[in-house]
Design brief:
alpha/beta; 7-stranded antiparallel beta sheet; 7-stranded mixed beta sheet; homodimer
Chain lengths: ~700, ~700
Amino acid sequence: MNGASTASSAGSEGSSKARGQADLAQQLFAPRSVAIIGQSNDPSKTAGRPLKYLRQARYAGRIYPINPHRNEVLGERAWPSLAALPEVPEHAYVVTPTEGAIDAVEECGRAGVPVVTVLASGFGETGPDGARREARLRDICAATGIRVVGPSSLGIVDLRHKTLLTANAAFDEPDLPVGRIFAASHSGGMIGTFLSRGKARGIAFAGLVSVGNEVDLSLGEICVATLDDPGIDAYLLFLGSLRRAADLRRFALEAAARGKPILAYKLGRSAAARELAVSHTGALAGEDDVADAFLAACGIARVETLEGLIEGMPLLARMPTAARTDRAPAVAVVTTTAGGATMVVDPLAGRGIAVEPPSAETLVRIKAATGIDVAPARIVDLTLAGARYEVMKGALDVLAAAPEFDLIVVVVGSSARFYPDLAVKPIIDSAGKGTPLAAFLVPEAPEALARLSAAGVPNFHTPEACADAVAAALRRRPPKPGAAVVARAAGAGRQLDEMQAYALLDRLRVPRTPSITVRADAMAAPHLPFPYPVAVKALSAQLAHKSDVGGVVLNVRDDAALLEAAATVRRATGVERVLIQPMVSGLGEVLIGYRVDPDVGPLVMLAAGGVLAEVYRDRSLRLAPIELAEARAMIGEVKALRALAGYRGRAEGDLDAVAHALAALSQLATADRTVLEAEVNPLIVLPKGRGVLAVDALVRLA
Amino acid sequence: MNGASTASSAGSEGSSKARGQADLAQQLFAPRSVAIIGQSNDPSKTAGRPLKYLRQARYAGRIYPINPHRNEVLGERAWPSLAALPEVPEHAYVVTPTEGAIDAVEECGRAGVPVVTVLASGFGETGPDGARREARLRDICAATGIRVVGPSSLGIVDLRHKTLLTANAAFDEPDLPVGRIFAASHSGGMIGTFLSRGKARGIAFAGLVSVGNEVDLSLGEICVATLDDPGIDAYLLFLGSLRRAADLRRFALEAAARGKPILAYKLGRSAAARELAVSHTGALAGEDDVADAFLAACGIARVETLEGLIEGMPLLARMPTAARTDRAPAVAVVTTTAGGATMVVDPLAGRGIAVEPPSAETLVRIKAATGIDVAPARIVDLTLAGARYEVMKGALDVLAAAPEFDLIVVVVGSSARFYPDLAVKPIIDSAGKGTPLAAFLVPEAPEALARLSAAGVPNFHTPEACADAVAAALRRRPPKPGAAVVARAAGAGRQLDEMQAYALLDRLRVPRTPSITVRADAMAAPHLPFPYPVAVKALSAQLAHKSDVGGVVLNVRDDAALLEAAATVRRATGVERVLIQPMVSGLGEVLIGYRVDPDVGPLVMLAAGGVLAEVYRDRSLRLAPIELAEARAMIGEVKALRALAGYRGRAEGDLDAVAHALAALSQLATADRTVLEAEVNPLIVLPKGRGVLAVDALVRLA
């Protein structure tokens, strides 16, 4: 990690912006004076905590507790109002209930307080009344220029400056370790969880923020303000939604440019959890694979377990982000307990990460270094020999230098319990010499874990967290630059008819079947530029599912049948014109689609065609536009397409043409911003070398 | 749990068997005298540990360290040989290297030592030499009647009797808590992990065993010996394979009869892990869904995380096993931190467990009990009000009495860190009053967790372990009685031809398409009892995949084409006879199969038909035979069948007929033990009410 402070933008506008960021960061995290508006005299109450914590931590700035009902709170002078203070504080934490909180923010804004953090809930998450309250807060920001963290913020903490502007009960902590990670969370409770679980695992923080409803300052904006902080090396995020995705993306790109890694946990793998995110924060909740695609495109590593998030950063910080292109990532597992090691292999495999055996050459080197004949197997099992320092150290040194691995996982058995030296010394002595290394200790072994942490060796308490963090670190790629404009789709938009949709495909060079149109009440069959049989389809910008309403007749075999089919379609749908195209059959069909997601902007999707693909939800997504290489990677992610890739001797489909069509469609992201959605379903996949053909298309404009 | 000791069998044979079990249990776990054969003088070496641990734990029996090279080990007298001892010890732990170990077992056997545990590895897991060594051990057992634990056993421990016959480094423990759980493991390292992690989480053991290669005494047999131990209430298993599945099943059925729950972790979700199980233990490794089906049929709850295994038993022990039939299990989640609670909802949903909102009536009762208007949502969110005792206690009491839930999960936020009383007292006071309850504490909160454990409230340190254990407990059902004979398939068996296979289906009443056979060189078309078009297929017991070799001609439309097709098939395959059947098309197709698994015995399988189903590995398995209700449950587990269940307005297939055919096929388990495998692929699914038809079948006999 690069801890150096570098300005991200040049020129006078840039430097004024940078100055603005620096001011904001100082007001947020290192204010010289703070007011606690609504500070209670009862330290066991939520509103009683901030003053208590600030004093416990020996915050060095000036503190103004404000409580109109008391002269004294927690043994110190209480001020009756903001107006009564001898100065305008740099940051106010408003801990009064909802209605009073809005008034307090307004008073702060008028008085020139630059930054206010708001604890109260009862805003966007609570329906129309709450939405009105949020609108009032926004109006106050616009009118006065005050910046707001929250509402529903459990606070903001800088452990270096002892700025404990928080009501989170877990900060009642006698000893607050200072580290170099900054944590930001949509959930207020999680900042206490980061602090307490981190402390137990040797992970410490520079600062933490509960961003609440992000009515003004978003999680991304707050993190951006910290980017040039030389005391911050890395970021942990707990995300409930992608509400302010544009800011998050800007932050992620700038963090990547500074070499500061980001590790995130995002709620919402399940529909049930996404529904909760909506009801608890008022945010929209997109589907989970959209979040996956977005975070990946931002270079943010995503974990799936709480402990993977807490314990994962030391590993992430040590992993290079440059993508290997020659092969999939490979992990070596070395162990003194085969059963314990297999507990890591299983969840790694579940995340698509392969544990690979050492090469024959590497085994020869291990033998030369240790005298041990390791059995050629998927893990390096030193069960009998490994409790000896020289053996484990020798094997690790050889593996760290072996070209076939991207990461080495050491799994230590029972010796770690009472012989921490024996168990972890070879790991500590071998770490940092080549390929990154992570350790999982199978028994309860707090001392051994602490020694690894102290020596800077990434270490894990459970096999699941280990596999989770390893997979997240190995899958992380540098952020995808450019594009990814975040746009909000307004309304349903306007649909094109199928011929207009084909015109768009033609411009993008997505191959489609030849088509002509005729009047639906035609008395003579048209001259067809292609042979029978044909399909006859209603041509209309109004019908989205024309098959469902009798708007499609297939396998029409001659002129008479053609006229009859046109009449049938006309009777069923009332359309004036029908579209005629040849019947096409291929080896299979896929769906390719483009849409502007309300959270994250332009997306491109590849899915298997047909009802089973729907049932299995078998699809791959990326932020658009994409290059061919990424389109090919997407094909690898759709399981059904294995059936078109020569599976068990079957004929191969033209998957290369699928990749070209997908990449071409994705160019809509830059080529035509009026398109909200464009879906080709099905795209017929012909045999290898013969291409693909769109035989239906649906396009919606803004 | 029922801690009372009850004899499982009656009559004199039964009671002599019970006596044998009691003797074995005493010799294994509470021997009055032990020999350590190969005890080293160096306590840091593996072979030096047993004597040290026995003395540290103050084992009260007589200990005989045997070491022919020394007069003294660890300060006490060492004996030169077994023969030199003043008595025949009741249990010997052999810690000498491989070859010497076999000799030592032989000597023990001849001397009349009833039980020996063997540490050495180098047996079945190491190829032909190892297999020969195992055979020698088996011969010694047969010749002398000695019972062997291992080889590759890290030992056997009874914490009540201080029998620490183990070389596991994690037992170098000054304070060994005694509990009521017995743990058995295929992996030797895991007994130290159970002990140490359990201790850290308030989970203690009566005894633990590392069963090693199970050359003589299997994991199931050792556990059976403990079944009538009144100090043992429950079992934890760590399984690497299902090598001795018949014993495991017998143990599970008897444990269930005594109300003693079993919680298991089994390695091998992934192919990579299964490959390791083979290379490390020499065991066969069946597919993971076979293990799932087997463990479920045994009434064994299976978890997927290490901490789910360590922390899960208190919950499992409190859950009723009687299956609800009126609805799927439903979980209530109550919380003071919505973000933390959602972390549990996601992994629960991933395991198919629904978190459900309280009914309107329940919300009214919560309001009456607490004065709080809880928003109607999927979780009961007390974030603002919940830190108060009366609110949390009131809400929990109402939920515990509400009929709509099978389990209540309480998720406590930051208050648990420094205010354990506040956080856990309402939970402790409400637990045990109705619906079972489990708690997950989001921050690091060891004190609060310890209070919950002390009060007997199931509690979890991570959301993943919580969801894992909750799902395992809710899915557990009473063991399926009867059948499930474990048989080992010898060789490839003998295949039937398709007509013979249909005869078997006819006996089982699995509907199949009408078929006639004719000579492949027939000069005149036969009279067909069904109309054209027909399929013409090679009839042979030798061809397993007749389509692949040109043995099938479809859509034959008249007599001339029929003769031509027969000739074509004859030329391609050389068969004498062909089978003719009508072309059948339905709404879809499935595969139903029966086979005798080498580990677990008769299995019945339902899978989607076609190549995509293969790609998705979309199937459901059960031990055979099954009843209709179970067949219907299997249909619900195959995703592809949703497309036949009225998905999005599509025509419904006759899934009831699929269930009947599946249940009928499964009766092979009792009806015909000569059948090793019977597969119907495809079984054509006709529209609802019109049944199913087998159009191909493959049967293999022993």
